[in-house]
Structure formats: C-alpha cells, structure tokens
Amino acid sequence: MGSFTQPVHRTGRRAADRTGPSRAVAVSIEGLSAMASLVTGAECVACGQTEVVLCTACRSELHAQGLSPFAAGHRAPALADRPEWTVLAAADYGGVVSQVVLAQKRRGHRVLTRELGALLHRAMWAFAGKARGAVGPERPGELWFVPVPSSGASFRKRGFDPLALVLSGCAATGLPPDSVVVPVLAVRGLPERLAHALLAAARPRDGDGAPEPPLRRLGRALLSTLPGPGNGQKGLGAAARRRRLAGSMRLSRAFRCAYGADALKGARCVLVDDVLTTGATLAEAGRVLQGAGARVLGAVAIAATRPPADRGSSQEEISEQGMNY
C-alpha cells in the first residue's frame, strides 16, 4: 500500500512460538554471511572492523542502548500541542545507533535491519502494554501501528523502504496481542503537493476576505513545496519543517481501494517512525489519520534525537532523517 509492498501484518502466534530456524542453521547463516563479507570487503558500520557488517561489540552496545524504551514526546517541539499522545523511543540517536540507522537507510542490509527491528519491537510491545493499561478491564479494539510513509523519490533512489523492512522483521518476530501493522499513509507527489498548496494559498488570509494576488500565491506555494538543495528538511527547525510538511501526506489509494476511507473511523492508531527529531512528520501523519476519523494514541520510534542543548547546533548528524523529497 502506498510505497509499502508488504501486506498488512496481523498478530500471529506468540513470539515464543515463532522460533524460526534452529540454532545450528542460524550459526551456519552467520558463517556464510562472514564468508561473504570477506569477499566483498565489508566493515563494521560503527567502528570499521573488517569482515563484518556489525561487529559483536557494536551490536552489544546497540542493544544495551535500546533495552528500555522511554518517553520522548517532550523532545519534539512540533508535538507540543498533542500532550495526550504517548511517544516512545527505543534509544537515543547518536553513536552506534545513529551509524546503524543511517547505514540501514543507505543499504537496507539484512543484518542491520534485523538489529533495528529488535529495538523497534521492544518499543511496540512497551506501547501496547501502556495502551492496555490505559483502557481498564474492558477489551479495547485492535491497535493499528501505522508507519510513516517514504516518499516516491526516496523509494526510487534506494530501491527499498527502510522502515518497511524493519517492520516486516518485527511482524515476523511477533506483534503484540490484538495489533496490526497497516500501511495507511502515502506521500503526495510534487505536482499533487503543489496543487494542494495552491488551493490552500487561494483561501483568504488575515480575515479580510481578500484573496491573495495570483503571482504571490504561486510564489508562496512554490516556496512551501519545492525542496531546497540536498535533503528537503536538512537544517530546518521545527516551525520550518512543519510548514514544509503541511499537506504532504494523504491516505494511500491502495488502502482506500481495499478498505475504504471509513475503515479508519474509531481505529486506535499508533504512528511508527525510524528517528524522532522535531515531530513535524508525526504531526502531519496524525493530522491525516485524525481527519479520517482515527483516534491517534501516539507514536513509537527506533531512536530520538537529544534536545538541541545536549547535541549542539550541528545538523550534520541528522542530515539523513525524515522523508527525502
């Protein structure tokens, strides 16, 4: 659906029942991977150790950082007007975590996808536990995990959707009870976004009832839609990101054709993203879901950036986060 190619993932057997290959087969697979790394000249994406994509020490550090999902909504200024949302992240974005996230985005490597899936899996189960505790003894409805979509340009550039790969691994490991991964959203293409921006700009402003002059309206629509050099969101603050993302998402045509827009009415939705920065992407995704009648409970992410005071003023470390228009 949208840029996602996998079907809806529903809760299967308990994770303990889904053991997958035996230990001997797993060891053999790892051995073959190591042999392939010797031929291709692979090196650890975090420390540079040769012959492995992710060395044992860096893998251990990655999972040590992601053992305890934590509340991260306060780090996202664009979510300040959504205090009722629960926002959980598996780890801080930095060090080994950031290196693995960026490398998986670039290459979609199976090993990296599996390791990030383990982090996201913990956050999803933690959120499901909080959601069950918040509704009391009555049985709640199904919990929909809705991934933030990848843009068409990003998909064509990479040839895959990084978050979709990670979520597929989570579903294979075992989703929380009464939960489902549903690719509901899609990113508008550039022509569609421009048309949407022109329609929005045509509305009267400042309460005076006077429409904006056509040339000024066109210029404002172009500025709000067209990406700048490189990544369309690189170096932008929370307010600028939110303006850039306004109107950029919609329900995917595949979802509407398969289920109808009314399927979202009353649905309990949790957004899923890889890295939480300002929260502008989640805010836009939540706007679309709520407009379709869904009840958005919050979001989960693999990692969350530290507050600006903790990470300094450099934007280099988050240059590849978010959707790439």
Question: Could you explain the architecture of this structure?
Answer:
- With about 325 residues, the protein is of the alpha/beta class.
- It has a domain of about 210 residues.
- The strands form 2 sheets. Strands 1-5-4-8-9-3-2 form a 7-stranded mixed sheet. Strands 6-7 form a two-stranded antiparallel sheet.
- The radius of gyration is 21 Å and the shape is globular.
- The two termini are about 20 Å apart.
- The N terminus and C terminus are likely disordered.
- Keywords: Glycosyltransferase, Transferase.
- The radius of gyration is 21 Å
> Any low-confidence stretches, pLDDT <50, length ≥5?
1-6, 12-36, 228-235, 312-325
Strand composition percent = 5-15%
- How would a textbook summarize the main sheet? 7 strands, mixed
Strand order in the sheet with the most strands: 1-5-4-8-9-3-2
Strand segment tally: 9
Structural class estimated from helices and strands: alpha/beta
Instruction: Tell me, rounded to a whole number, the average pLDDT.
Output: 77
Alpha-carbon distance between the two ends: 19 Å
Secondary-structure element order, N to C: EHHEEHHEHHEEHHHEHEHEH
- Helix segment tally: 12
Helical percentage: 40-55%
* Overall body shape: globular
